[in-house]
């Protein structure tokens, strides 16, 4: 028996009572193997429909005409730094990109359709008839980057970490570990046990459609780490079983990965993965410099995960880059958030006035070239979910503040002015507020401010505050009145999209909603999780949407897609129609560089992969 087991038992005894029990206890017959396969759905009354992957947006992988080439370094550019080497600390689709290739999960989304659950570290799985017991049969012969063997004990340990973040904070993990929705996702797991070295059984307190889907996520999901490595070493080395091994991290400069020579996976043709020798991701905060590195061919892949300036320039970029390609990566909700410690802002009439007067279309035009979807609500439009699951935009067309028509907008502003007068404000007595915007959204906030001046809302003497490198401290100080806020949702599962933006779970950990009470939607989320019927879930989501719009804890403006773009010399990059499929992109295990692609075939000898690194 390997040393790992001793470490787990010692750690459990250290805390007194182990939350996860390695020996069988509770949750039904501990010796029984659940008989129901994943393809069999139990009845809806006594056993909810089997959890499946999210509703399927259509997706078309890029056809691979040439045989894959081995070698070369993929040079990419993006805005954001990685938050350390622990995948659980990187919950943003932007910060995940450097980290995800180092780790594997039990199951994942298919690279071909972005929706179907397929094996990863688990070769197969069975689900009991009531949807509460999951048995995973693990892949044998897999090794971690440090050469140790992957077994069921590593899965048990990884779940323990997910359920007990405070214990890992004591070992050096940042506070972010506790903020992860993964803690909530695994709160219903009453028992996880290693049946044998390559079999793991999960027992849930209740059926949950969201739990199985959480295993497919790129964010708030279960990445497997070694159980016998001290956690401080894990934080420094990022040891996983993934296609790439950590090499170097220089904040604000670059993040480098090297190919894992012992990676366990092959492509459908039996070729050993990965194909690339290395990946270099350069961190470029300036949009113009980032796009210049991309359009010049010094980088084959770019991810504008801050304020998106690419969507409105697709035609321009296509004219500059032969065979330019772009696809959605995540959906972003753009909103104005209010500090309700200010009694005026806590008055619903103030928020209604802002909702009426806000020129959503103007903000969208400036920041996103009109590529965002002005959708008066917080739900998911079908356009941002591959045309699949989503709330019908028609249900919002009659809502106030939505209109682009100048006559209707003028009527909305008149109503908003009446509300402001009720609050005691007018042209001779404007309401002065401290407005805050992240660096990447200051232009959008300026346009939003212009429309709010129509209802006598102005900035304080400080003007529009744009925090610098310590922006998190400024945001958390709450020394502001109105914040331009955008929240990325990188999930293809509808429950995670909306829940990430408003729920009491998010409220507990989110600085931007800490003073508002979201508990009134909790019963509806319980109903949402208790079924796998997407039509029923959509009706529940519509109810939640309407309740949130009545409260107006924050005023939604529009949704945009976060896009990623790549040169055609980069092969096997999944291209999907769904704007929330970061998961199928970011392991980068099967990417290869076509170094015979014409623009690169003439580069000078010595360029990495026949093209230059960003300077």
Residues in β-strands, percent = 15-25%
- Level of helix content? 25-40%
The first-to-last residue Cα distance is: 51 Å
Q: Stretches where pLDDT falls below 50 for ≥5 residues?
A: 1-59, 507-511, 604-615
What is the total tally of β strands?
18
Strand order of the largest sheet: 8-9-10-1-11-16-12-15-13-14
Could you describe the largest sheet, including whether it forms a barrel? 10 strands, mixed
- How does the overall form come out from the CA principal axes? globular
Overall pLDDT confidence? 79
Radius of gyration: 25 Å
* SS-based class: alpha+beta
SS element count, helices: 21
Task: Provide structural commentary.
This protein is an alpha+beta fold and 615 residues long. Helix content is 28%, strand content 19%. The protein has 21 helices and 18 strands. The chain has helices spanning 4-14, 93-99, 152-163, 165-169, 176-179, 182-185, 209-214, 231-237, 287-295, 314-320, 343-346, 348-357, 360-368, 406-422, 442-452, 471-477, 494-499, 504-509, 522-529, 534-551, 598-601, and strands at 73-78, 107-109, 117-119, 122-127, 133-138, 189-196, 199-204, 244-250, 254-259, 278-283, 301-303, 325-338, 431-437, 457-465, 482-489, 554-566, 570-571, 592-593. The strands form 4 sheets. It has a 10-stranded mixed β-sheet with strand order 8-9-10-1-11-16-12-15-13-14, sandwiched between helices. A 4-stranded antiparallel β-sheet has the order 4-5-7-6, with helices on one face. Strands 2-3 form a two-stranded antiparallel sheet. A hairpin with a 3-residue loop joins strand 8 and strand 9 (254-259). Helix 12 (348-357) packs antiparallel against helix 14, helix 13 (360-368) runs antiparallel to helix 15 and helix 19 (522-529) packs antiparallel against helix 20. The longest helix is centred in the last third of the chain and has 18 residues, at 534-551. The chain is globular and about 75 Å long. The chain starts with a helix and ends in a 14-residue tail after the last helix.
């Amino acid at each position: 028996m390997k040393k790992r087991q001793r470490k787990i038992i010692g750690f459990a005894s250290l805390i007194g009572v182990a939350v996860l029990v390695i020996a069988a206890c509770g949750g039904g017959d501990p010796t029984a193997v659940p008989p129901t396969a994943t393809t069999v759905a139990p009845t809806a009354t006594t056993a909810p429909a089997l959890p499946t992957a999210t509703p399927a947006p259509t997706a078309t992988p890029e056809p691979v005409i040439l045989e894959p080439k081995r070698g070369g370094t993929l040079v990419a550019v993006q805005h954001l730094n990685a938050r350390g080497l622990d995948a659980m600390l990187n919950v943003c689709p932007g910060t995940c990109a450097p980290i995800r290739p180092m780790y594997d999960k039990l199951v994942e989304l298919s690279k071909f359709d972005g929706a179907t659950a397929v094996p990863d570290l688990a070769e197969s799985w069975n689900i009991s008839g009531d949807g509460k017991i999951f048995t995973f049969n693990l892949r044998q012969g897999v090794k971690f980057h440090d050469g140790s063997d992957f077994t069921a004990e590593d899965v048990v340990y990884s779940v323990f970490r997910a359920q007990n973040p405070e214990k890992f904070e004591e070992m050096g993990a940042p506070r972010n570990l506790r903020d992860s929705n993964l803690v909530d996702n695994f709160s219903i797991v009453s028992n996880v046990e290693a049946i044998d070295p390559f079999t793991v059984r999960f027992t849930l307190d209740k059926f949950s459609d969201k739990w199985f889907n959480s295993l497919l996520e790129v964010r708030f999901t279960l990445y497997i780490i070694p159980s016998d490595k001290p956690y401080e070493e894990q934080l420094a080395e990022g040891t996983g079983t993934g296609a790439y091994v950590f090499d170097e991290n220089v904040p604000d400069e670059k993040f480098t990965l090297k190919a894992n020579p012992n990676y366990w996976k092959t492509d459908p043709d039996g070729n050993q993965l990965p194909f690339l020798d290395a990946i270099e991701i350069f961190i470029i905060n300036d949009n113009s410099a980032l796009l210049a590195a991309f359009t010049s061919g010094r980088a084959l892949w770019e991810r504008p995960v801050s304020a998106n300036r690419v969507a409105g320039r697709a035609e321009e970029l296509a004219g500059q880059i032969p065979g330019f390609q772009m696809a959605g990566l995540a959906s972003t909700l753009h909103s104005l958030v209010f500090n309700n410690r200010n009694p005026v802002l806590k008055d619903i009439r103030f928020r209604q006035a802002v909702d009426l007067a806000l020129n959503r279309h103007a903000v969208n035009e400036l920041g996103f070239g009109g590529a965002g979807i002005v959708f008066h609500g917080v739900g998911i439009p079908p356009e941002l979910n591959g045309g699949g699951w989503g709330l019908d935009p028609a249900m919002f067309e009659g809502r106030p503040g939505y209109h682009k028509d100048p006559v209707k907008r003028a009527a909305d502003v008149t109503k908003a002015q009446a509300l402001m007068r009720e609050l005691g404000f007018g042209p001779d007595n404007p309401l002065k507020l401290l407005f805050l915007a992240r660096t990447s959204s200051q232009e959008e906030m300026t346009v939003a401010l212009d429309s709010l001046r129509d209802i006598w809302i102005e900035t304080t003497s400080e003007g529009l505050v744009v925090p610098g490198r310590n922006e998190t401290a400024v945001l958390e100080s709450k020394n502001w009145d109105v914040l331009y806020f955008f929240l990325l949702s990188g999930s293809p599962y509808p429950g995670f999209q909306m829940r990430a933006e408003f729920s009491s779970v998010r409220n507990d950990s989110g600085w931007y909603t800490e003073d508002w009470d979201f508990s009134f939607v909790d019963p509806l989320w319980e109903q949402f999780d208790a079924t796998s019927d997407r039509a029923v879930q959509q009706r529940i989501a519509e109810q939640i949407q309407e309740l949130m719009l009545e409260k107006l804890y924050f005023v939604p403006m529009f949704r945009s897609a976060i896009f990623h773009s790549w040169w055609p010399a980069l092969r096997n990059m999944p291209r999907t129609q769904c704007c929330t499929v970061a998961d199928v992109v970011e392991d980068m295990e099967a990417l290869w560089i076509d170094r015979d692609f014409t623009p690169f075939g003439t580069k000078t000898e010595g360029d990495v992969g026949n093209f230059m690194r960003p300077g």
